[in-house]
């Protein structure tokens, strides 16, 4: 059994914890919880014939005040960058986080997840911005922790990418 | 690089190749012409090489670091070779100029010393806390008792109890990723998901380190959760975390530390290249299991049954028994004391004014007591109380309770058995019969008896007086008959007169004892025949006749006898017949008993 550390990164309240909860426990709650520090979960997946244990480090969201702690990132095999589709600025935060993550852990695989697709009316990201991401070679998923849309795929894709390395 | 053999090969290969017969000189010439300059160059190089067997410092300098690194990977020869030199170099350096080394070590020594002192202080504070706790708590007392019982020192006993521990889980964690490398569990300890715990432990470490620590070397070493302690040993590549229940000795930390060092040594490469596959660390299981140490208090384990009758328990049981018995005696004493008090209160002639019951000193009781009342000391004994444990103080007083008044009257007046006393509303009733003298005495004394204001004699008979009265009655019934119209006694009246005389004599004799004086009046009578004047005269004479006769009989006492004649005025009978008439011709006697002066 191989274990891999995966970090959930992103701005405040983009849905990192909800995604993990949806992915690991298949539940969703509207209630908002601020993660302080880090919360760790585990999910077993199978990539090809290889069984894999993903240790999901749900790290507290980043904003101007609370910078990403590199120590939490250390040793991560990959990470998921979470963007809130209803808040444009979270995309910018994601760019910044990606930069600092790369400085800390190097070129490890990551997946960008644009969350909250269920909130159609409040959607704030145009396709252009998303295409731009794809164009720069990033893997992008539009997810909803509420409905579970594309959540499994996003994590599985990251797992596969990690195993390819 | 440089092959010293090549010129020789070149030099010798040529003649061999061209070793044709008779052509030697020509060939040599040709060779000289063709490769002469090169040949000379080769010879020059050869000479140079032979001159300088050793490598040039430049060359060595170029390859040395790489060479050292390569060799160090192979074995420890380089280190061994350098060790004496390095040691000596350090020695010389210190002798020459200690400051250099001091400067170099300064950043290391400071934190090291601080850490050592801090640890020592923590240990000391912990010890102090423990000893304080142990000396003041119930458990501490229990342990002191145990120390006293077993003859061990208190410290030993405390150690015995406090050093009980069990390492329940040991985690080996990859430091960089926080991933679990190996995990062992002792027995049936409850297990959380070890992978997550491992991650969380790492995260907590990072959090604590990032949040509170400025020094790179400072790390979280202990987590304390209730009865559980997590000891964390940090290595460069891996972390060893032990979950301990109870208080583990400091030596255990050393064991953890050594285990981690050993794993680092043996699995250096695996740790370095760890990519998430923890199976390569399976062999570390054995080392980690060695960390699953425990220490039980054997006496507590095996002696659980025996302990039921340990001396401590026996003492405790005895104590409990003693307390129960003491309690029983206390209650009994209390009950008896209560009984005694109520008895005293109901007892006439005793008034309790103060009664105190003490636990430690004798009880005290004070009050008033009539000397005639029951003795409180006797009552004490009757109440089963120990008189020595009770301080009594009784003030004498006179109780006006009728019972006591009667008792006092009896004591003071010593009545004859025929007399009893009764007290009603401060009045002393004497009931029965008593001699006159006693009655007189009693009248005088009764007033001085406390509680008696008056003597009531209505129910008391004066025996002397009643005797007198009886004789008086008899005397006054006597009739001395006379012959018609004479002062001569009728026949047979002498005997009657004799009896009368005897009775009067008796009367005189008894009168003084009854406090009376006796006056005797002889009354003469006639029948109604004849004139009143004659009758009166006759009656006087008859009375005088009897008086003189009695006087003769009685002697001196007779002076007190009067003789009066009443004629027929006070006839004894209605004169219906002759017999009645003759009865009226008589003399009677009247007695007056008056109080003697």
Could you walk me through the main structural features you see in this protein, from its secondary elements to its overall organization?
The complex is a heterodimer of chains A (165) and B (597). Chain A has a six-stranded mixed sheet with strand order 2-3-1-4-5-6, with helices on both faces. Chain A is built from five helices and six strands; from the N terminus they run βαββαβαβαβα. With 165 residues, chain A is an alpha/beta fold. Chain B has 597 residues and is an alpha+beta fold. Helix content of chain B is 54%, strand content 18%. Chain B contains 20 helices and 17 strands. Chain B has helices at 6-17, 24-51, 57-74, 77-96, 98-136, 138-150, 154-162, 194-212, 250-266, 268-272, 284-291, 298-302, 311-346, 376-382, 402-413, 436-445, 463-477, 493-510, 532-554, 578-584, and strands at residues 165-174, 180-185, 222-225, 228-234, 238-246, 294-295, 350-356, 363-369, 390-396, 419-424, 427-434, 454-456, 460-462, 479-481, 516-524, 561-565, 586-595. In chain B, helix 4 (77-96) packs across helix 5. The radius of gyration of chain B is 73 Å and the shape is rod-shaped. Chain B starts with 5 loop residues before the first helix and ends with a strand. The model of chain B is unreliable at 1-20 and 298-307 (pLDDT under 50). The interface between A and B is medium-sized, with 21 and 22 residues.
């Amino acid at each position: 059994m191989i274990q891999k550390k995966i970090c959930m990164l992103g701005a405040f309240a983009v849905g990192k914890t909800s995604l993990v909860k949806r992915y690991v426990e298949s539940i969703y709650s509207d209630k908002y919880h601020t993660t302080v520090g880090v919360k760790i979960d585990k999910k077993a997946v199978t990539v090809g014939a290889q069984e894999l244990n993903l240790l999901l480090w749900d790290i507290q969201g980043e904003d101007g005040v609370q910078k990403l702690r590199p120590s939490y990132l250390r040793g991560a095999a990959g990470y998921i960058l979470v963007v809130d589709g209803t808040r444009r600025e979270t995309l910018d935060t994601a760019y910044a986080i990606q930069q600092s993550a790369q400085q800390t852990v190097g070129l490890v695989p990551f997946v960008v997840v644009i969350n909250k697709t269920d909130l159609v009316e409040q959607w704030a990201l145009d396709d252009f911005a998303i295409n731009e991401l794809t164009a720069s070679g990033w893997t992008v998923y539009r997810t909803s922790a509420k409905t579970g849309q594309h959540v499994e795929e996003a994590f599985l894709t990251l797992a596969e990418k990690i195993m390819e390395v | 690089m440089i092959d010293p053999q090549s010129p020789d090969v070149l030099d010798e290969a040529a003649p061999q190749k061209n070793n044709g017969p008779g052509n030697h000189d020509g060939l040599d010439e040709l060779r000289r012409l063709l490769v002469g300059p090169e040949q000379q160059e080769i010879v020059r190089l050869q000479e140079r090489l032979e001159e300088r067997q050793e490598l040039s410092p430049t060359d060595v300098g170029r390859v040395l670091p790489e060479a050292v690194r390569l060799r160090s990977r192979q074995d420890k020869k380089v280190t061994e070779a350098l060790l004496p030199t390095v040691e000596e170099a350090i020695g010389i350096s210190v002798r020459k100029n200690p400051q250099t080394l001091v400067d170099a070590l300064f950043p290391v020594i400071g934190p090291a010393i601080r850490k050592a002192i801090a640890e020592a202080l923590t240990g000391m504070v912990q010890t102090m806390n423990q000893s304080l706790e142990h000396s003041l708590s119930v458990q501490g007392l229990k342990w002191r008792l145990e120390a006293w019982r077993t003859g061990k020192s208190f410290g030993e006993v405390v150690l015995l109890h406090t050093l009980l521990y069990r390492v329940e889980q040991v985690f080996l964690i990859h430091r960089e990723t926080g991933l679990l490398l190996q995990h062992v569990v002792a027995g049936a300890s409850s297990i959380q998901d070890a992978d997550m715990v491992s991650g969380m432990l790492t995260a907590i470490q990072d959090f604590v380190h990032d949040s509170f620590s400025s020094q790179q070397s400072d790390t979280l070493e202990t987590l304390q959760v209730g009865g559980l302690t997590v000891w964390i040993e940090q290595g460069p590549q891996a972390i060893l975390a032990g979950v301990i229940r109870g208080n583990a000795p400091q030596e255990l930390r050393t064991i953890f530390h050594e285990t981690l060092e050993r794993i680092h040594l043996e699995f250096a490469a695996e740790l370095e290249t760890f990519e998430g596959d923890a199976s390569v660390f399976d062999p570390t299981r054995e080392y980690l299991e060695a960390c699953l140490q425990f220490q039980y208090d054997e006496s507590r384990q095996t002696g659980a049954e025996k302990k039921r009758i340990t001396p401590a328990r026996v003492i405790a049981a005895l104590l409990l028994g003693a307390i129960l018995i003491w309690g029983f005696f206390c209650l009994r004493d209390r009950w008896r004391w209560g009984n005694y008090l109520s008895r005293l209160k109901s007892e006439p002639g005793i008034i309790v004014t103060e009664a105190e019951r003490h636990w430690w000193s004798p009880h005290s009781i004070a009050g008033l007591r009539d000397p005639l009342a029951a003795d409180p000391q006797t009552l004490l004994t009757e109440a089963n109380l120990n008189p020595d444990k009770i301080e009594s103080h009784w003030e004498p007083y006179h109780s006006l309770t009728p019972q006591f008044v009667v008792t006092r009257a009896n004591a003071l007046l010593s009545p004859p058995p025929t007399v009893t006393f009764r007290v009603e509303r401060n009045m002393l009733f004497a009931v029965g019969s008593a001699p006159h003298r006693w009655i007189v005495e009693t009248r005088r004394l009764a007033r001085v008896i406390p509680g008696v204001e008056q003597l009531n004699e209505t129910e008391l008979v004066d025996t002397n007086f009643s005797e007198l009265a009886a004789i008086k009655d008899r005397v006054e019934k006597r009739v001395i008959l006379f012959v018609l119209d004479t002062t001569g006694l009728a026949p047979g009246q002498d005997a009657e007169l004799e009896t009368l005389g005897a009775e009067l004599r008796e009367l005189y004799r008894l009168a003084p004892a009854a406090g009376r004086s006796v006056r005797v009046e002889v009354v003469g009578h006639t029948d109604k025949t004849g004139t009143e004047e004659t009758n009166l005269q006759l009656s006087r004479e008859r009375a005088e006749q009897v008086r003189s006769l009695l006087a003769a009989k009685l002697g001196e006492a007779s002076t007190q006898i009067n003789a009066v004649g009443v004629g027929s005025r006070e006839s004894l009978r209605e004169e219906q017949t002759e017999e009645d008439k003759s009865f009226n011709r008589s003399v009677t006697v009247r007695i007056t008993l008056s109080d003697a002066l």
